[in-house]
Amino acid sequence: MSRLTESAIEEFAIKLLERLGYDYTYGPDIAPDSDHPERSRFDGVLLSKRLSAAVQRINPLIPFIAQQQAIKEILISKMLQPTPKTSSFRQGCRDRAPIRATYQQGESPCRRMP
User: Fold this and answer.
1) Is the domain of 29 the same as that of 57?
2) Which range marks the domain in which residue 55 is found?
3) In principle, which of 32, 50, 60, 66 could form an S-S bond with 101, CB 3.0–4.6 Å?
4) Which of 43, 23, 39 is nearest to 31 (CA)?
5) Is 39 exposed, middle or buried (0-12, 13-18, 19+ CB in 10 A)?
6) Residue 44: HSE in the Cβ half-sphere, 13 Å Cα cutoff
7) C-beta separation of 101 from 69 below 8 A
8) Angstrom distance (rounded) from CA 28 to CA 35
9) DSSP code of 29?
């Protein structure tokens, strides 16, 4: 009888996510002391540059200032409630949280992120 190990579960999850179209990057390759760091600390989970790029890619029609506000909300949520039970962040993603944006011609109505 074979044992189910943490590494086997991790490998399974990585392969599953790759089949769904996600990219995998080996953690030490983006560590603070690597040649291409994407985090400033080893315990950093959120990759800010990737988050910004994703928000811009997913929401190209939303003004830049609103994109930045959405990113700020995510970062604040992460800092205030760094536990797996961060329901407000998950709920905001699921319900497409409204973001207020100011256009050049005045304030826009509250819009949901597409």
Assistant:
1) no
2) 46-114
3) 66
4) 39
5) middle
6) 18
7) yes
8) 10
9) G
The label of the residue with tokens 């994407």 reads: 38
Q: Are residues 16 and 50 in the same domain?
A: no
pLDDT tens, 6-29?
999 999 999 999 999 989 999 899
Q: Are residues 103 and 59 in the same domain?
A: yes
Q: Position of tokens 């993603």?
A: 93
Q: Based on the fold, state whether residues 55 and 71 are members of the same structural domain.
A: yes
Q: What percent of the chain has pLDDT over 70?
A: 67
Question: What are the tokens at 110?
Answer: 């509250």
Three state DSSP letters for 48-107: HHHHHHHHHHHCCCCCHHHHHHHHHHHHHHHHHCCCCCCHHHHHHHHCCCEECCEECCEE
